[in-house]
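Lab notebook: predicted structure, single chain.

Context: the supervisor wants predicted structures on file for every construct in the current expression panel, including those that have not yet been purified. This is the next one on the list. No modifications to the sequence; it matches the entry in the shared construct table.
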Amino acid sequence: MAAHGGRMQALHEHGQSVWLDYIRRGILGNGELAQMIEDYDLRGVTSNPSIFEQAIGQGSDYDAAFHELAAGGADAVAAFDSVALQDIRDAADLFRPVFDRAGGHDGFISMEVSPTLADDTQGTVEEARRLWKALDRPNVMIKIPGTDAGIPAVEQAIADGINVNITLLFSLANYEKVMEAYLAGLEKRAAAGQPLGHVASVASFFVSRVDNSVDAKLEEIIKGAADEGTKAKARGLLGKAAIANAKLAYERFQQVFSGERWEKLAAEGARVQRPLWASTSTKNPAYRDVIYVEELVGPDTVNTIPLATIKAFAEHGVATRTVDQDVDQAHAQMATLKELGIDLDEVTRELQIDGVKKFAKSFEDMMAVVGQKLERVAATK
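Prediction complete. Output recorded below exactly as produced.
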């Protein structure tokens, strides 16, 4: 491993897996991703509609594939499906040695069901089954949003034996439902006499976006409060809500994946559903560029990180166990937010709704780009 990978290895020694939050065809075929796996000890990759929109819309990585697809008469939906499935298969094959060495604990590649299905339980189940069958790799995960419609789809997918990455989680209440869906899905499999050991899942908690929203509300309080005490409380919480929220989620994870119910499933080979920290690049330049990595390190966690933040952490990050430290302070910070009139449940609900809309918009924009590329290459045949 390259020397700068030492800090990444330290994260793994604390029980955290680093996944790359990025994919495009060029890095799969030219050895770049393979080199990153070695340099940064990467353990997986996540994709989403926004990532694919950027990958397909920028550059010429997919032009050759679109030429062939256009010649075959593929429309935009079929063309995207073809190139995305192939990218995920190729990435899964690159990470298969990681998966095998980890005994099925790591080495996963995630692909998301269409965000247009976020409010359609049965449509999500059917799409998850289709993608799982089409990808045909043990080290892929199907991403399902943690919406009201998505959660029962998670339970069914787990019961089917499909690896699931539950995405767009922001609130503790939502996270409770996600963990329950995972456990219930495993219990259905066990009752049906199906094996549990190969089923893997992560619950993706989006982090930095919470600070973006809460900080905006705190700034309003600082600007409008009449007394210095209120202003001081608000200032003291800037940049704190996201990490506190994630630490409380981890606290609940530890509670749920212990005790009699979990131990019964674990005895049959079940794996814990690891918390995954997503949206961990720093959006506010006033904050340390690796804050959402450094403050959430601990056992049985995943951090999916953009390449720029991975490089920053490899250069100057500090890897110490932090995710279960100062939890009492996190509770106190949440209490102070409530005292200041900030309803975190409402904030996180709006963030999830907005997240679904953004992914749907990226998906629509990507389909428009794919359609345009198909028309262009068809015209040049």
